[in-house]
Amino acid sequence: MSDDQTTDDGSRGEQSNGSAGDADAERGPQGRALAAEPIEPSDPEEFGLVQAWWGGGKGKTTAAMGMGMRAAGHGYRVHMLQFMKGGTNTVEDVRGEYNAIEHVPGFTYENAGHYGWHGFGAASDDEDHEAEAEAGLERACELIDGEGLDEDDDTDHDRLHMLILDEVLYAADRGLVEPDDVLGLIEDKPDDLELVLTGSHEEPTYLLDAADLVTEVRKHKHPIDAGQPARKGIEF
Questions:
Q1: Which long-range contacts (CB under 8 A, 24 or more apart) does 142-151 make?
Q2: What ranges in 37-190 are assigned the alpha helix state H?
Q3: Number of C-beta neighbours around residue 138 at 10 A
Q4: What would the pLDDT profile of 48-103 be if each residue is shown by its tens digit?
Q5: Helix axes 125-144, 179-188, angle to 10 degrees
Q6: End-to-end CA distance of the chain
């Protein structure tokens, strides 16, 4: 289809590599071509719920980031703050999601984790893990209060629409932050802020009344149990 051609529904289309202009482009309902649109800053109409993703299965962070990517694709402002993920000797410090998020307008991230894993290093490291988690909690409070949002994000947004607190439920489960502090974040958040909390193999019973969506991610089988180490592009 050339620049001057129109689609079956009367809309005009432009031809580009891999876009709807190709003859073999994927087509949706009624034969309409599926093509990406430019991302323009926008405000959601129905955000404001609290989500909690927990369980022993893989996919909690992945699900949260997927929602963040979807929201950013609609032009909404998304930020992810990670607890406890400070890197280990088996996982690269710069994960694939960091590189990807850098290229998505309106989606930013930061990390509040200490190197290693809480409870598996020197006893003195536990104090560092706790200090990092407490700093992460303070940062979460700032973001919920509308402070400290990175303004250099290629969008015109001056406020946050979705805040992902990745692994914060693990931090609460391991005593690095208090469950009451997590509840405090929920109580203090703006009515139109979508708050997404992930982590913990233990059920966060303290959240059941406060959260609008609680999803348990269950494990039936995982290659790590057979000795498979974390894989680049899958786990990090």
A1: 143/79, 143/81, 144/185, 144/188, 144/189, 144/190, 144/193, 144/195, 145/188, 146/190, 149/77, 149/79, 150/79, 150/108
A2: 60-73, 96-101, 125-144, 168-173, 179-188
A3: 11
A4: 999 999 999 999 999 999 999 999 999 999 999 999 864 455 566 667 888 999 99
A5: 10
A6: 40
